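User: My instructor asked us to take a sequence, write out its structure as tokens, and then describe one feature of it. I'm not sure where to start. Here is the sequence I was given:
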Amino acid sequence: IQSMIDGCTQVVKTGLHDDRAGVDYIATLRKGATILIDAKTRTPGCSKYWRQGPELALEVWSVLPNGKYGSATGKVGWTLCESKNVDYILFTFDPADSNEVFLYPYQLLRMTFRRMLSHWWQTYKVDTQDSHTWESQCVFVPESVVWGALRDSMRVQVAA
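Assistant: Let's start with the prediction itself. The structure tokens for your sequence are:
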């Protein structure tokens, strides 16, 4: 993380309280500003499902509504959560799958995911994970597609 953030002097792994709030690391810059980072790591062997290089697991539901564990309302996934207080998402993989690491700005990723969800839902693999306490649901989108969509989200044309 430190090598990815210019001016970073320290990276600290958070404690259990911050970790439960979705902050895994706090990076500190030379002048004291802090950057909150949520780390997302894919299960080893995930590359066998990839069609276009590394895929990012973008969570639609953290707790699937009406899942087999009885939650009627569900809980929105981290990728869509408007109350999530984090600056960046760090995507990593098992070295056997990919040695690439991606650091994405959270709010831009969230806005882009909301805009693209319907299309990506129809285009890419959607899967449910069972934790034996709740079920979550993700869309698995190639990183190159997500990056292009982020770039498009930052660019608009205004009327002259």
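For the description part of your assignment, you could build on this observation: Residues 40 and 91 are 5 Å apart (CA to CA). Try explaining in your own words what that tells you about the chain.
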